[in-house]
């Protein structure tokens, strides 16, 4: 048994997707997984390529770009550690429909697609777990679509900041773990629109600290109200997870 | 809502949908015995958001819209279902509540498939689950396309693309003239994420360009203009 095998088993056991499975099943899964590291700004796969693997992000961030019928590509999502991408390895035509590249050094567990499909087909509980992963993704996408339709850029930024806000003695704070250029792409706006959104939020009591790495929210209820959210949407229930919605 | 067993033609149609074709003839016949056709009337709801999803559905005829309502009561049209096919299978099989309201826009009929009956088949024949997952990924692809359009295309592009896609969809599914009518303007605006004011302004612009005619119902006058706008505006 290699170090990688044990490390992969340890990580898989801790994921919400596979954590409930017995140790021997995790071992079986780890048997067709590989530990991989990618440098920043490196393509993981391109749209149209055969979908041979799924990926679980151990740490880092990747950016997903979708190409429309006319061949124009645009970023549709930023995926972070603890999430799976490349699920098109389980699709009918087994081709990736989007391109994925890293935005920072990223470590992943690569899961062999055909072996994973066979593994899921052996036991309905395994298959249901994976269906649940995809369904969660669909619900998040539905939320994202609603958000893009209904909220201005500044409100989308406000909702993003609310998702990670922690109480401090004079209000709340949100640490920005990603660069502003990446944040703009994640929120579906241009960098200059993001700058305007930050300026707009100062009117609602949101100010930048530590050279923009920390956002201070003076009155969280005022921001919640301004973003058009109900207090119930600030809870962390599955369907109200603001971060995944954005 | 009136409920009845499936006709022979409806059973054949169900068997052509990938989600059911994968079951094989015998298992499908077993499943069909626990399914019912429900006739649905305009203005009624097939299900509401947060209802426990005990059934997923196949649209046979009619038109439905899927709507999400914010905590402050604002409604957003997420999708128009106008062509025969399965829907709500993801949340139903995952045992989640419906995330949207499903409202009937035009009278029609749906097949209601009980979650428990479908899951029972999956438990006995887990190899079918691959086909279910592939179906869910088709929905994911649809949503990706939506997100891409909302993030990267202009309102005018979205209107042009919607008008073309809606018409193509209706023709592809051989819908009659009435069924090809576009939904109300405010619903289209909500569907493509544009305020009603912007939508009206852009429709006037398209009319001036002779691309469409407005009035009681929208009509495409010059499809080539719309196709050009959908690509490059």
Strand content of chain B: 15-25%
Strand residue percentage of chain A: 15-25%
| Number of beta-strand segments of chain A | 12
CATH homology group of the largest domain in chain B = Jelly Rolls
Give, in spatial order, the strands making up the sheet with the most strands of chain A: 1-8-3-6
Instruction: Please report the number of helical segments of chain A.
Output: 9
The CATH C-level class name of the largest domain in chain B: Mainly Beta
Radius of gyration of chain B: 19 Å
Main β-sheet of chain A: number of strands, strand sense, barrel status?
A: 4 strands, antiparallel
Q: What is the residue-averaged pLDDT of chain B?
A: 90
Indicate the CATH topology of the largest domain in chain B. Answer: Jelly Rolls
- What is the succession of H and E elements of chain A? HHEEEEEEEEHHHEEHHEEHH
Question: What is the helix tally of chain B?
Answer: 10
Choose one word for the global shape of chain B: elongated
Protein name (chain A): Cyclic nucleotide-binding domain-containing protein
InterPro entries (chain A): cNMP-bd_dom (IPR000595), cNMP-bd_dom_sf (IPR018490), Env_Response_Regulators (IPR050397), HTH_CRP (IPR012318), RmlC-like_jellyroll (IPR014710), WH-like_DNA-bd_sf (IPR036388), WH_DNA-bd_sf (IPR036390)
Organism (chain A): Thalassospira profundimaris
GO molecular function (chain A): DNA binding; DNA-binding transcription factor activity
Walk me through what this model shows.
The complex is a heterodimer of chains A (246) and B (233). By secondary structure, chain A is an alpha+beta fold. Chain A folds into two domains: 3-140, Jelly Rolls (Sandwich), CATH 2.60.120.10; 151-245, Winged helix-like DNA-binding domain superfamily/Winged helix DNA-binding domain (Arc Repressor Mutant, subunit A, Orthogonal Bundle), CATH 1.10.10. Chain A contains nine helices and twelve strands. Chain A has a four-stranded antiparallel β-sheet. In chain A, helix 5 crosses helix 8. The longest helix of chain A has 27 residues, at 124-150. The radius of gyration of chain A is 19 Å and the shape is globular. Residues 236-246 of chain A have low confidence and may be disordered. Chain B is α+β, with helices and mostly antiparallel strands. Chain B folds into two domains: 2-149, Sandwich (Jelly Rolls); 153-232, Arc Repressor Mutant, subunit A (Orthogonal Bundle). Helix content of chain B is 47%, strand content 23%. Chain B contains ten helices and nine strands. Chain B has helices at residues 8-16, 18-21, 25-32, 89-93, 115-124, 129-152, 155-172, 185-192, 196-208, 223-232, and strands spanning 2-4, 36-40, 45-47, 55-69, 75-81, 85-87, 101-114, 212-213, 219-220. In chain B, a hairpin with a 5-residue loop joins strand 4 (55-69) and strand 5. The longest helix of chain B is centred in the middle third of the chain and has 24 residues, at 129-152. The mean pLDDT of chain B is 90. The chains are: A alpha+beta (246), B alpha+beta (233).
